[in-house]
Amino acid sequence: ARNLFDGLSRASDGEIRNRAREVVSDLRYDGVVIADAAREVALRHVETLPGAAELVMATSSPDYMSAIRTYLRSGGVPVFTPEEALAVRASMSLTSANGGYAMPFLLDPTLVHTGSIGRNPIRAISRVETGTQKVWHGVTVSNVTTYWKGEGSAFTDGSPTLAGPTITAEQLTAYVTGSFELFEDSSLLGQLPGLISEAFTDAEAAAFVAGSGSTAPKGIVTAISATAGCTITATTRGSFTTASSADVFAVLNAIPSRYEDNATWVGNKTTFNTIRRQVVGTAGVPVVDMTDRNSLLGSPWVSASSVTGLTTSGNVLMVYGDFRNFVIYDRLGTVVDFMPIVVDGSGLPTGQRGLIARKRTGSDVAGALDAFRFLLV
Length: 377
What we know:
alpha+beta; 5-stranded mixed β-sheet
């Protein structure tokens, strides 16, 4: 059979992409299951993202997988075979030159999204962009303004306004420790996807809701909270009960019509369970049909545990809007750093080694703030 990894240095860009497609479609590894949906994401990156095909080829070869195993078991001072050393050198040229090792392609939760392990609903409904630079640069455009004019009169310029939003990919880390024996005797490499993906998913889920935007993604609540027009204040501050249906309708009615067809509700399951019991009018008509789990007043909803369900005054209880205007930017490639000896507070070895996995991601509203409304209790 043809070795897809032979002669890469002489291959054209087109040939590298063709080989990367085959690798993504066929790659297997003991103990790791790559879902079809994840392969589709990776194939899309290979087709559209500069550098993705090269990264796939550099970090999925048998020599590179062997080098990573050698690295994990070495205590931080690996003795590579010539083939392993060449594979590591190739991967390092595609990542930050800081001593870290690019995670093997099929274990990389940035290149192949393995988020099914945890729940990250904001990522699922938002616009996700991937790149190889620190900062994502987008372009937004306002409406074209139209005018009625009389015969023979001059036209009025209605050109739209262009803007260039940017999102910085901030660094997210996960620290994993294990005993010397675990690194030496186990297939830790096959366990890393679940460990790292779960940690990253949990951290991102919180950041995409309420991240500060300073050395962390800017969450949707943080992004819109300072915009008065986005705020819908509860009728009774500090209260949201089965009698608060008017507040739900107030949020629904406040969203501009241009965004309502693609709007999604985001809130805690506690809030949605309260809404299920709300009724309107003297006849007690339910606000939402309890048999329709996926729709609230005509729009889909997702449960996000990072949005509070507590009705303490000042809390944001729900966000409603068109999340195509909320951009999540992933910088391609997850990197692993190795700590050969873990010590306790006295500086004594604990008989453990450590792995620090690092990825870079950011988020912000990169479209119209007016596309969102939130309920403030």
